[in-house]
Amino acid sequence: MSTIDNIRNFAIIAHIDHGKSTIADRIIHKCGGLTEREMKAQVLDSMDIERERGITIKAQTVKLNYKSKDGKDYILNIIDTPGHVDFSYEVSRSLYACEGSILIVDSTQGVEAQTLANVYQAMDTNHEIIPILNKIDLPASEIEKTKNQIEEVIGIDTSNSVPCSGKTGEGIDEILEKIIQTLPPPRGNKNDILKCLLVDSWYDSYLGVVILIRVIDGKIKKNMKIKMMSTNQEYIVEKVGVFTPKPKDMDELNSGEIGFIITGIKNLSDTKVGDTICEASKPLKEALPGFKPSKPVVFCGLFPVDSSEYQKLKDGLAKLKLNDSSFSYEPESSSALGLGFRCGFLGLLHLEIITERLEREFDINLLTTTPGVVYKVHLNNDKVLDLQNPSNLPDPTIIKYIEEPWIKATIITPDQYLGPIIKICQNKRGIQTNLNYSGNRAVLNYEIPLNEVVFDFNDRLKSITSGYASFDYEIIGHREGELVKLSILVNGEPVDALAMMVHKDFAQTIGREVCEKLKDLIPRHNFMIPIQAAIGGKIIARETIKGFKKDVLTKIHGGGARDRKRKLLDKQKKGKARSKQFGKVEIPQEAFIGVLKINKD
Fold this sequence. Notes:
Blueprint: E1 7-14, H1 20-30, H2 48-53, E2 60-67, E3 73-80, H3 88-96, E4 100-106, H4 113-124, E5 128-134, H5 143-154, E6 162-163, H6 172-182, E7 195-204, E8 208-217, E9 219-221, E10 225-228, E11 234-236, E12 239-243, E13 247-250, E14 252-254, E15 258-262, E16 276-279, E17 298-304, H7 310-323, E18 328-334, E19 338-345, H8 348-361, E20 366-368, E21 372-373, E22 375-379, E23 384-387, E24 399-414, H9 418-427, E25 431-438, E26 441-449, H10 450-454, H11 457-464, E27 470-481, E28 483-490, E29 493-494, E30 500-503, H12 507-521, E31 529-535, E32 538-545, H13 561-582, H14 589-600
Parallel strand pairs: 1-3, 1-4, 4-5, 5-6
Antiparallel strand pairs: 2-3, 7-8, 7-16, 8-15, 9-14, 10-11, 10-16, 12-13, 12-15, 17-19, 17-20, 17-21, 18-19, 22-23, 22-24, 24-26, 24-27, 25-26, 28-29, 28-30, 28-31, 31-32
C-alpha cells in the first residue's frame, strides 16, 4: 500500500502544439499504462474533433505506477491540459488538483503567449514547475536560446530543465526521475474526516454523471453517504475508480489521490465544478474556496437552415450542454431566420467546436448570426442590463451610457513584424501598456475592447506575421464606450439578425460595407429594394437593388398609341408600388454569411 509521500500529482502545461499530449503518451507508455497494442498517438484526446484538429479540448487524467531508479514504487497522477486560450478555465481547475506542473516549451519556437498565461496560472496556484524543452530531435532546435528565453521572459530557473523529444522518447526517463525528485507530495491526512474537491464532471450514457475528484483529506469508498456542500444534497457512492487511462474500479480513494466516483446523479447541473464533497454524517464547517465559474464572453444566434430541424437542434444543444458546463443557450426568435437559440461561448474556437459538433454529431445544417459580446447598459433609473443581442437594445433616450468588455492582450512576435502588429492594435482601439524584448522577440501588452478582437484579430495577426506571432488574452472588466446600434433595413423593414453594436467612429464605414455586400447578395425582385444602414432614425448608408422591368409596350401599334402606352406604364407603376408594399424580400442564407465575412476582411 503506497503512502501519501509516494504520490505525485502534476499537470502538463504548454502553448498549443508544443507537445503536451505526445509527452503524456510517452509517459503512459513508459509506465505501462497501456500495452503496445492499445497505444495510439494522443491517446488522451478521445473526441474525434480533438484528434482531427490536433488540439486538446477537455483536460484528461491518468493514474500510473512508476518504479524509480532506486527501486521505490510511486503513483503518478497526470492531468493533460488544453493549450488554447478559449479553454484556459480547464487549465485553471486542473492546476488546483495538483501540487506541481511540467512546463513544455518547444525548443524550435521558444516561449509563446499561452506559455506565459499558463505558467502564471501555475505560479498563482503555488506550483513547483519543471521546464521541459521538447522537440530536440528537430534540426531547428535551439536549447540554450530557449533556456535564456524562459529565464528572461518568464523568470523561472532553467538549471533543472530537461531536454527531450516526445517523438523519439529521448529524455522521458529523466523527466520521470525529475518529477519524483522535484515535485512535492500532496499534503493531507487519510485519517481525517473526508474533504474532496470536485474537479470536473461529465455525462456518460451508461453510468449517468461521472465526477472527477481530488481527495484532500480522509478517504472515500463504495456505499459511503456523501454530501455536496453547495447544494446540500446527499448521495450514496455506487462506484469508485481511477483512469489508467482505462477506467479501473477501486475499493477506495485515499487523501492525495485523484479519481472518479459515480453516485447515480442524472443531471450534470447537480454537480458544480469546484464544489466540496464531504461525508454526510461528518459535515465540514467550511467549504474549499473552489473556482470562479466560467462565464461566456461571446454570444451568437444559432438557427436551423431548415425550420423543421428546430427540435433536433434543441435536443443536440441539451446533449452537448451535458458535457460542457461552460456553454449556455436560451431560445430566441428572429423575424428573418425563424426560431433558434442564443448561445454563449468562451471564445471563437469554442463557438467553432460547438457548431461543428452539432453539424457532425446531430446532422443539422446551421446558420450562425454575427458573434457579439456582452455589453452592460446603464439606464437613467440606475438599473444595469446585460445586453447579449443588439436587437434588444432599449430606447436610446433611457440609456445613460453603455460599457463594453476589455481584455489585456499579450502578443509575442519576432521583432520584424512589430510595426504592422502595432498598427492593427491601434486600428482596433488598443492602448499599449508594455513592450519589452527577449533576444529578437518582442513581448507586447495591449488593452483592447473584446468586441474588436472577437471576429478576426487572431487570423489577421497570423497572416501578417506568417504564423510566427502568438496571442493570448484575459478579460479585465467593462469600460464605458461610445457605442451605437447599427440597424440594417431591407425594403424599409429592420433585419434583426443583422443588427450589431459598433463604435460610433466606425459605424458609417461598416454600414456602407454591409449595404454594398447585401446589394450583391440579395437577388433582384420585380420591384426596387432599398437597403439602408441606420443608427436610430438616421440613415447613414444606402444602396438600391433595381427591380426587373417587363416591357409592356411591345404589342402596341397604330393610332392613339401614346395614350395607351401611358396607361399601361401607369398600371405597371401601381402594380410595382403594390408589390413593394406587400411583397416579401427573400434574403438568402449567403447574405448572412457574406455579412459575417465583411468583419473578417
